[in-house]
Design brief:
The protein contains 23 helices and twelve strands. The protein is an alpha+beta fold. The protein is elongated.
Length: 651
């Protein structure tokens, strides 16, 4: 027995511990704090905004609950009322859930917003205290089920006719919660736009979003017009009933009395079915006659809803010009309200559409202003026509390529790490297309990508002129260029080559970086580079190239030097000139040997087997002179602007 009791006591202890653990877990789950800047909070706000908009469209439909029947009576459509009550209750449930979410949502302390997002307050008591003090009662009033209580409890308790003037007035008074919710939707949408950065991704979607307000006002106007039309029809019946008060009672107008024999006698004797028609002159229906003529008050729900929405949209868009009112005060007030709503719709819709559509053409307008300023400047400076044409061509080409977006200014606003990642994404594949960079490692490529700057050149632009200082290297991405040299203006000498995607120019700068002169002067260009088509390229300035060379010693390695010489236009020209000069010298020596052999008969031209120790240029030969100078400079270990790079003898 003692063992069993001890065992039962142990089981009780375990069960109590399990209950405590479950309670602690429930407490922890209840104390979950939501980050207002997180993706879940943004998703909930968007879902709640959608629910609010749907709820706004549902509330005016309660005005369409009263309906007439062919038996000339009025009643409340219980099926429609029940359906609308369920939908509205679901919307109210979202409002209640939003209140609970707000009690669990942290907030940013205003005093901590000195820099950045500020400090997030996650204390439950502080969150609850702040919400109760500022926002709780606002959300609670919006969540109250006022239409449900009014239509199911208050109206049946009042009694009287279904659409009496008192009940009509109360229906419109209790629509105040609809206006209250409508006011709350605007700051909610602005809050989502502020926190997420944008709520409407495209201009057309933004226009459609603002079109919802037009449809909402059409819904209000249509429901009010329908309800007042039913009330006007019942007023006509009531006036005929008052004329025959001896046999008619006001209760005959309710559908609950259609089995009353006295009611049938009054209908037949008063000719109410023909007199209460807009075509008759007995009663003035005014702007509501259209609803009575088409039987909208007795039609199925979706039929009368579509017809009423069509009337509301037509009337708002025409600013009430299709309305013909009578002397009834309430009718004229309603017509004035319709016109005011139409004007508000026009102002808001046109303003929003203009704002969203202008956002897509804003850069084009800015470019037009800049172009006008450029035209005024060119006219003021009296620039020649050819120069003006070149400037206009460059502006058009830059707009087509960049759409007036200054990429450098956009990057400068971002953190350094993001700039590095973006430039790597944009430039790495392009840099790898340059054969000179194929042998570099990733760290060196990243460093080069970080310092590359995009540039654009139109056809006919001179990138580098022969004899000018070289301040940057150009790496061609798209387009073709012509690279030529005249050997410092030597008569009879001209060499030309093509530069395309993957090539580079300004290679003298690399020699200057690896072997900087004592005076620090930039190197002089040995070639002229001219664009023969529109060119897109990346530029590496002298200071950036020097930084890369100092950080990465591999740039001065033997392997990189060979790769540089192989792809350099300057070295290719030198090699071609040297080969041509040697070949011509060989041909001349061979011809000289043949002549000597013919004259002597048995003497061999030993000069054919000698090595070319001293290169002697032929008079008047530009290529020979160019090659001779290059060869002499290699042997002396010196350098000038006509020769190869100064590190040629290091190999």
């Amino acid at each position: 027995m003692s063992r069993r009791r001890r065992h039962n006591r142990v089981e009780d202890d375990h069960s109590s511990l399990d209950r405590v653990g479950v309670l602690d877990e429930l407490k922890d789950n209840f104390k979950i704090i939501i980050d207002p800047r997180g993706s879940n909070a943004w998703l909930w706000k968007k879902l709640f905004l959608l629910t609010c908009i749907v709820s706004l469209f549902v509330d005016p439909l309660f005005l369409m609950v009263p309906q007439t029947r062919p038996e000339l009576c009025v009643e409340d459509g219980r099926t429609l009322q029940m359906t609308l009550t369920i939908i509205r209750s679901l919307g109210d449930a979202f409002y209640l859930v939003n209140i609970v979410v707000q009690f669990r949502t942290a907030f940013v302390e205003p005093s901590s917003r000195v820099l950045g997002k500020g400090e997030l307050v996650t204390n439950h008591k502080k969150i609850a205290s702040r919400y109760l003090r500022y926002r709780f009662w606002v959300d609670l009033i919006a969540a109250l089920p006022i239409p449900q209580v009014f239509y199911w409890e208050i109206l049946p308790a009042i009694g009287g006719l279904t659409v009496s003037e008192l009940k009509i007035s109360l229906r419109f008074i209790f629509m105040a919660q609809f206006v209250y919710r409508l006011i709350l939707v605007y700051p909610l949408s602005m809050q989502i736009a502020k926190e997420t950065g944008i709520i409407l991704e495209t201009a057309w979607f933004g226009a459609a979003y603002n079109m919802l307000f037009v449809m909402l006002t059409s819904d209000i106007a249509a429901s009010s017009w329908y309800l007042l039309g039913v009330q006007r029809q019942e007023s006509c019946w009531k006036s005929l009933c008052n004329q025959n008060s001896t046999i008619c009672q006001v209760g005959f107008l309710e559908c609950s009395s259609i089995t009353n024999l006295s009611r049938n006698t009054w209908i037949q004797s008063s000719n109410v079915a023909n007199l209460c028609q807009p075509s008759a002159s007995y009663y003035q229906f005014g702007i509501y006659g259209e609803a009575v003529n088409n039987g909208a008050s007795s039609a199925p729900f979706f039929s009368k809803l579509s017809y009423a929405l069509w009337w509301g949209l037509k009337t708002l868009c025409s600013l009430g010009q299709n309305l013909t009112t009578g002397l009834y005060i309430g009718e004229n007030v309603f017509a004035v309200i319709i016109i005011i709503l139409g004007l508000i719709n026009y102002a808001l819709l046109i303003g929003h559409i203009q704002k969203y559509l202008q956002s897509s053409s804003e850069r084009l307008e800015q470019w037009r202003l800049k172009r006008n300023n450029t035209e005024l400047w060119m006219h003021h400076r009296q620039l020649p026509r050819d120069l003006r044409k070149s400037i206009r061509k460059y502006d058009r080409y830059k707009w087509v390529v960049t759409e007036s977006v200054d990429e450098q200014s956009v990057l400068e606003r971002l953190p350094t790490d993001l700039q590095r990642q973006i430039k790597r994404h944009i430039c790495l594949d392009l840099v790898k297309k340059v054969p000179l960079f194929n042998r570099m490692d990733d760290r060196m490529l990243d460093s080069i990508c970080e310092r590359l700057k995009p540039t654009l050149c139109t056809k006919g632009t001179l990138l580098i002129s022969e004899g000018d200082a070289v301040a940057e290297m150009h790496f061609i991405v798209q387009g073709r260029l012509q690279s030529c040299t005249t050997n410092g203006g030597r008569e009879g000498f001209f060499n030309s080559s093509w530069i395309g995607p993957g090539d580079f120019c300004g290679e003298e700068l690399l020699t200057w970086v690896l072997n900087p002169p004592s005076n620090g002067a930039l190197p002089l260009s040995a070639r002229t580079v001219k664009a023969i088509s529109d060119v897109e390229a990346f530029v590496l300035e002298a200071g950036d190239l020097r930084f890369v060379a100092l950080q990465f010693h591999k740039l001065g390695s033997r392997e990189m030097k060979h790769a540089f010489r192989f792809y350099s236009q300057h070295w290719r020209t030198w090699a071609a000139c040297y080969i041509q000069a040697v070949w011509r010298r060989h041909k001349e020596r061979k011809l000289l040997g043949e002549l000597i052999a013919r004259e002597s008969g048995n003497q061999t031209a030993s000069v054919l087997n000698q090595d070319v120790d001293v290169f002697i240029p032929q008079p008047g030969s530009g290529l020979a002179v160019y090659a001779a100078r290059l060869m002499a400079m290699i042997r002396r270990g010196s350098s000038n602007r006509f020769g190869p790079d100064s590190y040629a003898t290091t190999d």
